[in-house]
Amino acid sequence: MNIDDLKEKPIWQMTGEEFLYLQQNTGATTATASAPAIDSTTKKHVYGIVGIARLFGCSMPTAHRIKKSGKIDQAITQIGRKIIVDADLALELAGRKTGGR
Asked: Which segments within 27-72 are labelled E, that is strand?
């Protein structure tokens, strides 16, 4: 099998064997050369009350209470009705214990 011919052939016309051969032979060379570097400093954001609810695995009323409590205020940026939450910081702030019993 010639790799150049397989690259020009549409995927829907390839057999399973041809497709796997193409993946194995071209994937190794392009994966190492063109793989994007994963930046661990990239912030993960969630949006809105729904995003907070998914982040903490709770209901929307509980997510609203969490936001309203002020515990995660440092992680929240709100412009008008748009709520943007830094997910990692919010989880860290919610995990801290302050006062109480």
From this structure: 45-47
Structure tokens given for 22: 């193409």
| Measured distance CA(50)–CA(88) in Å, rounded | 16
66 vs 20: CA distance, rounded Å: 49
What DSSP state is assigned to residue 38? Answer: P
d(CA 27, CA 19): 11
Residue-wise pLDDT for 28-71, tens only, equals 554 445 555 555 567 799 999 999 999 999 999 999 999 999 99
Beta strands in the chain (DSSP E): 45-47, 76-79, 82-86
Whether 21 contacts 6, CB under 8 Å:
yes
**Model-level pTM?**
0.55
